[in-house]
Design brief:
By secondary structure, the chain is mostly helical. It is 60% helix and 2% strand. It is built from 16 helices and two strands. A two-stranded antiparallel sheet has the order 1-2. Helix 3 crosses helix 7, helix 3 crosses helix 10 and helix 11 packs parallel to helix 15.
């Protein structure tokens, strides 16, 4: 019938910090509706930067690029339907905000910094990678530029990505590139599966069938053959995919099936990336 005093104290401290953060974030909710727009969140992150130990030394010239990187992670995971707003309660319960707040700690190893999306080294590496892919230096990526991100990405996937996601004059800008990276690096998340679903659901029917699987996997086979790895049968792979997805409807896999089956990331990888498949 008793509780440990230290555990109780830490519980109170955590709750107090949560309330303080809630009050702080709410100051940026200009509409008073319990959510932040991109502009609201941009202002919030801008004012956090000088107060965080691992962010206060950020180069002024890089600040705007850094904020774009930070905003993209919040909106990718907390606004998958692209409404242009994030609810404060979702922010508070999300590990994303906790990841950002870790940068307040003075004792934070270089290895931890290099794995934190919100750290300056991580954002800098993302920006350098984008610039390296941008061969004509016009601040956007052509299809052939993006294909160099991973040798295994099939042609049809890159074509579909450019059809479905934001492009500038038919090319992918830095924001679009960040979304792509977040999806590639977090394939197990429902948000990443939803990102790739738009690519796979070619005819916008809300389900993919044998025809769609054949379409994507034939492109994977072509890629494997160029790497001198062959001998895969489309029919066998199709059966494997349906077995893993366990669709509610016969011969039709929905987004919900991919998320619920627990193997959506494997199925997506099999259909978009020859290297990941092999």
């Amino acid at each position: 019938g008793r509780i440990d005093m230290q555990s109780f104290f830490h519980s109170i401290v955590r709750k107090n910090n949560l309330f303080q953060t809630r009050i702080h974030i709410s100051l940026y909710d200009t509409a008073g509706n319990g959510y932040l727009t991109e502009e609201n969140l941009k202002e919030y992150i801008s004012e956090l930067i000088p107060t965080f130990y691992h962010l206060k030394s950020i180069d002024e010239d890089f600040k705007d690029t850094y904020i774009i990187c930070a905003l993209k992670k919040f909106f990718f995971f907390l606004d998958p339907k692209r409404t242009g707003r994030i609810y404060i309660k979702d922010m508070l319960t999300s590990p994303i905000l906790a990841e950002l707040y870790e940068l307040r700690q003075e004792r934070y190893s270089e290895e931890e910094l290099n794995q934190n999306w919100f750290s300056v080294p991580y954002a800098t590496a993302l920006f350098h990678r984008f610039n390296k892919l941008d061969t004509d230096k016009n601040k956007t990526l052509r299809k052939e530029d993006l294909s160099k991100y991973s040798r295994g990405l099939s042609t049809i996937v890159i074509d579909r990505l450019y059809e479905e996601y934001q492009t500038v004059n038919g090319e992918l800008d830095f924001k679009g590139f960040l979304e792509f990276v977040l999806a590639m690096e977090n394939k197990k998340s429902p948000e990443a599966i939803q990102y790739f679903w738009r690519i796979l659901d070619v005819y916008h029917k809300g389900a993919i069938d044998s025809f769609i699987i054949n379409m994507f996997f034939r492109s994977i086979i072509q890629k494997l053959e160029t790497l001198e790895k062959c001998g895969f049968n489309v029919e066998d792979i199709k059966d494997e995919i349906f077995d893993m997805a366990k669709p509610e409807l016969p011969m039709a896999i929905t987004l919900n099936d991919l998320v619920k089956c627990g193997q959506g990331d494997i199925i997506v990888s099999m259909l978009i990336d020859a290297k990941a498949f092999f």
